[in-house]
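User: Sequence recovery, please. Input:
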């Protein structure tokens, strides 16, 4: 018997406009089993109950596809992927995409690498062990990705400084946020403008678990000025677009 309720996952995905075929559902089941197994050895997530995995990890990750149309073959980076969220569910649902799962914690990426291999996603996904602020100043990564996705990593202002430099001009940065998104948006508005972004949409989504999600869609409309991203200490000390203390 499957560990997670695949019928429920399929229905939730459908409500988000995502069609999951049998291969994808089998991969979601396999990923759930791997997550729980590895979590007993390394700390990947506090959510390990089957319903939590369906809603708070899998369906929650797929909300990105309800907010933006992602063309066939597009490339994305998942900033602060942790145990692979949202990047691995996005790749399971859409194996035509190409994803880089970035995180500064090596041991979490060992799990993500293992999952990429086991799920047969080796031609479409890879991990990158680096801080986002370091990736954003590398020529081979800066301004390269059609999409950047991120969940539960930093407030929207700091996250914009991580993600917008890596996003192509014409591309989209998608921040998966919870109920308090508006406060974060207000605080991030000026920074987003400075970094070359423009808020295009905030999509409010309620899954059947009733938790409110807000998917913030930010278009990259002009190049990020070369002095961004700054080093992490500077980002913490001088929040972008905020009056100096
Ligand atoms: N995105 C995953 C999720 O939603 O389950 C993981 C969230 S976890 C709370 C935050 C992750 O972001 C951690 O794995 C941490 O190592 C990573 N992280 C935080 N700041 C980062 C940075 N500046 N560069 C790269 N990774 C970062």
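Assistant: Recovered sequence (245 residues):
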């Amino acid at each position: 018997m499957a560990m997670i309720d695949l019928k429920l996952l399929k229905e939730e995905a459908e409500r988000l406009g995502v069609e999951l075929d049998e291969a994808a559902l089998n991969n979601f089941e396999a990923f759930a089993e791997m997550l729980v197994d590895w979590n007993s050895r390394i700390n990947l997530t506090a959510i390990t109950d089957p319903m939590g995995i369906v809603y708070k990890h899998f369906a929650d990750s797929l909300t990105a596809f309800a907010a933006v149309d992602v063309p066939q073959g597009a490339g994305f980076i998942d900033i602060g992927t942790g145990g692979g969220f949202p990047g691995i569910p996005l790749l399971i649902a859409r194996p035509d995409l190409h994803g880089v799962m970035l995180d500064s914690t090596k041991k979490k990426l060992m799990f993500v690498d293992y999952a990429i291999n086991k799920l047969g996603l080796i031609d479409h996904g890879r991990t990158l062990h680096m801080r986002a602020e370091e990736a954003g100043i590398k020529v081979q990564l800066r301004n390269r990705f059609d999409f950047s996705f991120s969940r539960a990593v930093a407030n929207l202002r700091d996250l914009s400084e991580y993600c917008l430099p890596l996003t192509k001009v014409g591309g989209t940065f998608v921040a998966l946020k919870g109920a308090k998104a508006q406060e974060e948006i207000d605080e991030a508005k000026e920074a987003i403008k400075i970094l070359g972004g423009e808020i295009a949409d905030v999509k409010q989504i309620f899954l059947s678990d009733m938790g409110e999600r807000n998917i913030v869609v930010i278009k990259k409309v002009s190049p990020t000025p070369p002095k961004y991203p700054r080093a992490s200490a500077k980002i913490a000390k001088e929040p972008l677009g905020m009056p100096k203390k």
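The longest strand covers residues 167-177.
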